[in-house]
Amino acid sequence: MTASQAILKGICPDGGLYVPNEIPKLERPLSEYLGMGYKDLAFGILKHFLNDFTDEELWEAINGAYDSKFDTPLFAPLKKAGDNCFLELFHGKTIAFKDMALSILPYLTTISARKNGEDKTIAILTATSGDTGKAALEGFADVPGTKIIVFFPEYGVSAVQKLQMTTQEGKNTHVCGILGNFDDAQTAVKKIFTDEALNARLYENGYVLSSANSINIGRLVPQVVYYFYAYLQMVEQNIIEMGEKINFTVPTGNFGNILAGYFAKCMGLPVEKLICASNDNKVLYDFFATGEYDKNREFFVTTSPSMDILVSSNLERLLYYCMGAKETAKLMQSLNSGGKYETSKKFEDFVGEYATEAENAAGIKELFESTGYVCDTHTGVACAAYKKYLDKTGDKHKNVIVSTASPYKFTRDVLTAINSKYANEDDFRSMDILEELSGITIPAPVRGLDKRPVLHKDVCEKDALSEYVESKLK
Ligand SMILES: *Cc1c(COP(=O)(O)O)cnc(C)c1O
Question: pTM to 2 decimals?
Answer without folding.
Answer: 0.95
